Amino acid sequence: MSIFPLPQFETDADPTDRGMTDEERYAKLESPSTIVVRVGFMARVAEYPYTGEAKPGCGSKLVAKTHRGQEMVEMLTTTCPNAGCGKSVTRSEMLEYIKGSGGKDYPFRTDGRILRVATIEDMNEWSAVKATCLEKVKVVKRLVAEQGLEMSVVEVEPILGQEQLTVYYMSDDRVDFRELVKDLASEFSTRIEMRQVGGRDEARLTADYEKCGQHCCCKNFLKVLKPISMRAAKTQKATLDPLKISGRCGRLMCCLRYEDETYADLKKRLPHRKTRVGTPEGPGIVLDSKILVQLVLVKLEEDGRQIAVPVEELCDPDNCPVKAPEPDPFRGLGGPEVEERSDDQKRNQRSRKTRSARQAEHKTIAKGEAEARTAAPETGDRVKPESDDPQTTGPKKKRRRRRRKNSSGGDGGTPAPKASGQGSSAGPADPGGSPAGSEGPKKKRRRRRRRSGGGGGGEGTSPDGNSGG
After folding, report:
1. What are the C-alpha distances in Å from 155 to residues 51, 183, 223?
2. Which of 262, 270, 367, 382 would disulfide-bridge 289, Cβ 3.0–4.6 Å?
């Protein structure tokens, strides 16, 4: 079987007609001339020129000369057209982003330059410098406590060249830390910068993740932290529980400001409460509204029902369709009849029965039942004649009675039990029973007794059919 080469394989094998490899693409790129980087613990944004031959990509670690000294920075993007980075932006786009993110308040600097791409030695040195931050914080707190200053030390930030040490602190009042700066300069042998921060900047320095599972916005991308009002939380119908709408800084979460403008635009389309509007079912009064779903809760004027109506279906209350009136149930009746039917008290008295009426009704029911029992033989059923003979009489309902002891017996003996109507024995005789009239208590025994058809006067019959007299 012969093998035929496929056309696409032949095309890939042709060195003159194939795509470039990654190495060839990288060699064809030009080095960027300007690079946007993130600087320091506060993640400030800066744009520095670059004159090296390497072609770094987004996220690369660079060594830059900034206004504070030699620092380790992180590359964000490039702003030059000759860079081959897919995330490269133009300078006009970057300036527009800065204007929309805070304008003049946005921390953007250009007084510096990129020295080189960070090497392994630079990375190791930077890791060793950052490892000393915890010990330096302890030293600063100890000196603050010794001088009795009312300030809270948040973080200490060194730089790669260790030309400067920045101390971030929080304080409600103005603090005179001149003596503290002298002690710190002699302790660390470097230039000391004291920077006061607020609650949001403290979260930017120390916080990591928020309730949503993402990095804190102030630590990730927010650079200008504007205050958030409670009005934004009320407009978005969010819960007013401080534990649920407060961030790591203890203030309202910054994400409430993201959708504030959208909620404001949607709220303008909804009518105000207690205003009269028209619906497909008639005019009504607005009780409540939902901003996101654009629904309005309306109470109809006709029957008082509450319905949810989309904002698109609202119309002028004077031109909306009106529900057809229902027929009048009192039409054609006079004034007294209408008053009698509409008066609840009279209607209740008419429906309530008196005591004599209820008794007469019960008597009528009882009389009807008695007549029904009397008229039962007339239906064709034959009535059996009564007979005194217990053998001829039919079985009767058994009644369970307790046998009583005859205290004043005529013959001094115990009366014999009556015989069963069907000849069934009421119980075996006691073979070892004591004779009649013997002294001593007897054990009471419960026996079933049957009524004889013609028996009277309490006389009973013995088990053998003889009457006991």
Report:
1. 34, 17, 18
2. 270
Q: What is the dihedral of CA 30, 34, 36, 37, to 10 degrees?
A: 90
Enter the tokens of residue 358.
């209820």
What is the separation of C-alpha 266 from the centre of its chain, rounded to a whole number of angstroms?
25
Place of tokens 């069907």: 422
**Residue 132 and residue 44 in contact, taking contact as beta carbons nearer than 8 Å:** no
DSSP summary character for residue 252? B
* The model's pTM: 0.54
pLDDT above 80 for 462: no
- pLDDT (tens digit per residue) in 249-304: 888 888 888 888 888 889 999 999 999 999 988 899 999 998 888 999 999 988 88
CA atoms within 13 A on the CB side of 450: 23
Q: What is the CA radius of gyration of the chain?
A: 53
Three-state DSSP state, 161: coil
At 234, is the pLDDT very low, low, confident or very high (cuts 50, 70, 90)?
Answer: confident
Mind listing the pLDDT tens digit for each residue in 26-65? 777 778 888 889 898 888 888 999 988 888 888 889 999 9
Burial of 101 (0-12, 13-18, 19+ CB in 10 A): middle
Helix (H, G, I), strand (E, B) or coil at 108: strand
Is the distance from CB of 404 to CB of 444 less than 8 angstroms? Answer: no
Give φ, ψ of 166 to 5 degrees: -100, 130
**How far are the Cα atoms of 168, 230, 419, 422 from residue 461, in angstroms, in the given order?**
117, 101, 5, 13
Phi, psi at residue 49, to the nearest 5°? -75, 155
**Residue 175 burial (CB < 10 Å; 0-12/13-18/19+)?**
middle
Beta strands in 149-294 (DSSP E): 152-158, 164-170, 191-196, 276-279, 282-290
List the one residue out of 102, 101, 97 whose CA is nearest residue 87.
97
